[in-house]
Amino acid sequence: MSDAATLILSEPLAGLQAQAIGLAEAARLPHDLRALTPHAPWKWVAAKLWPRPLTAVAESLRGPLPDLVIACGGMGAAVAAALRRGGRRVVQVQHPRLDPRRFDLVVVNRHDGLTGPNVVVTRTALHRASPERLAEAATFWRDRLAHLSRPLVVALIGGSNGRYRLDAAVAAQLAGGLAEMMRRDRVGLAVTPSRRTDPAAVHVLRQTLEPLGAWLWDGAGENPYFGMLGLADGIVVTQDSVSMISEAAATISPVMIAALPGRSHRQAMFLEGLLAEDRVRWFQGRFATWKVAPLDDTPLAAAELHRRLAL
Question: What's the pTM?
Answer without folding.
Answer: 0.93
